[in-house]
Amino acid sequence: MANEEDDPIIQEIDVFLARSLLEKLYLFQYPIRPASMTYDDVTHLSAKIKPKQQKVELEMAIDTLNPNYCRSKGEQIALNVDGTCTDETSTYSSKLMDKQTFCSSQAASNVSRYAAAVYKKGELHLTPLHGILQLRPSFTYLDKADAKHREREAANEGGDSSQDEAEDDVKQITVRFSRPETEQARQRRVQSYEFLQKRQAEEHWVHLHYYGLKDSRSEHERQYLFSQGHGLAENTELIKSPSEYLMMLMPASVEEENDKPVAPSNVLSMAQLRTLPLADQIKILMKNVKVMPFANLMSLLGSGTDSTAVLRCIQQVAMLVQGNWVVKSDVLYPKDTSSPHSGVPAEVLCRGRDFVMWKFTQDRWVVRKEVAAVTKLCPEDVKDFLEHMSVARINKGWEFMLPYDEDFVKKHPDIVQRQHMLWMGIQAKLEKVYNLLKEHLTPKKQEAQSAHPLLVSGEQRVSMAKAKVKQNYGQLEKELQKQKAEMKSNDTSAKMDVSNIRIKEEPVSDEEPMDTSAYEGMNNGIVNGLHAEENSTDSFNGHLPGGCVDRVAQELKAFVSSTFKKQFVLTLSELKRLFNLHLASLPPGHTLFSGISDKMLQDMVLDTGCKQILVPFPPQTAASPDELKVYALWEAGDTYDQHRQVLLEIFSKNYRVRRNVIQNQLSQECGEDLNKQEVDRVLK
């Protein structure tokens, strides 16, 4: 009460609602101008509007005589935009930037709370606003200047063309035939950003006439801002009870549907998902995920969900493959739909996808070419099927994306048996449709589904190689001891001549030892990798003193690994040459002088992650056998591993390939378009 006494009412003003300009009155917000310049002084050359979009474009004249106007800059802008010639299409006919365009944007989407007020003779007249538009400078003339600059550059470079550029102009084109548009596709197209932009561009501009502030027409229109009648019948909206007026000022907090962010039609939040029936939840999840273990499905459905009810519903929309659930084909391809790639009807797509699912019930690996040969579908459709449930592995095929779920199979044998009977029925149907042969029905590897693929790491390979070397060393050591015993029994007292010792071949290989005769002069007295000064007979022919086997393997592995990381691809002949150069740089008595055969060298190359590339050289080639053996580093750990492997696969089929074939194959297998520099880097 004390506050009300301190703040007395000074004056009461009658408020009237004017309706004459209802849904016609807009508020324009102009950029800030200097205080010395009012909009009465601004000359509006033209104005136009798009009523549906509430978009306005005004063109205003610039006072070029103002001392703040930079004339040289205005002339430069006009020259950049229009060039030296002046015609009807010129933006600035006076060769001077003498006008500026302003484009509007909506300042607020909901303007129902705003009104224009006019106070006159103790009365306040309100007119609701239909829109609030902010006008900002438009710089489209800069785009026009850029276009002119590009045209001039193109004209200057038009005469310079080479044979290589002419060849680059020849491009492969793909012809596609349009198919009938479905209702769902039409709705997506209508809601797309590109379609909306096109619709907005199609609306025609309506040209307006501008009247100044002191014009008689403006004076006449301003009279409509006043309420035409002061009777109660004209202002019933302003006659409200105190409670109704308070409700209008502070309405109840109701979440309007329009204020919620609109998600795409194919996106559903987890909160919205859990409001649906259980069967619909499972169907939506499986349709989006496509392959899922049962445990993951239960975690998505939330705690407290009955697993029995889930099992009953999941069998209606999915099939069991290797202990995991894969969505049924008819859920992904409903009736009366067709392939987005080839236009094939949904029934044919379902049969092809069922064949892929059935193949994964037989084996973890599926070959894409085999699926395409049996189903007779286009490669894009087959790739879609495989991507739904598997992952591509280079040189192996497509592997099922999830491991075998042993826990589910053990806990639910009745479900597994029922699914097996369903697959037997699908198999019988596929045999009739595709006329499957025995080779299609029998899995390539008769392994239990629970068996996991054997993975051998690099450390395991090195351990296996060391064990193999130790085994060979033990056998050779026994033979040497036996030979020494025979020599002692003959009472041979003469010293052995090193040159008369017969070098035995390793029993594990039929290949000849490494030929180093061409490098005798360079090896400083090395004979077969040995120094002639060494007198110990235990070091001959690869026989190492105890404890040196591991060190030899490590040294040899380090050499091979560093060499292939530099060269990537080597023939056996070149590798032997580099190895002999490496031996020549080593000090006398090094462990690698114990004698390294071709077999040991090749085994170490394979153990360090390299592979032999069987390049089909022509029969009439003059190359030596060692030059025909090609080894390549399969995985270097860089970004070009996949590209390099695809390239090696190409050369394993043909020793001579055109560059454009290589580029197309790399783009197809790697799923990305490589430019010329990237292809050159891979080839190098």
From TrEMBL:
Which top-level group of life is the source organism from?
A: Eukaryota
Q: Return the Basic and acidic residues bias intervals.
A: 146-155
Pfam families from the UniProt entry: RPC5 (PF04801), RPC5_C (PF19725)
Boundaries of each DNA-directed RNA polymerase III subunit RPC5 C-terminal domain copy? 444-684
**Example of a GO cellular component annotation carried by this entry:** RNA polymerase III complex
Q: What is the lineage of its organism?
A: Eukaryota, Metazoa, Chordata, Craniata, Vertebrata
A biological process (GO) of this protein is: tRNA transcription by RNA polymerase III
* Full protein name: DNA-directed RNA polymerase III subunit RPC5
Keywords, A to Z? DNA-directed RNA polymerase, Transcription
Organism for this UniProt entry: Antrostomus carolinensis
For the keyword Transcription, the answer is: yes
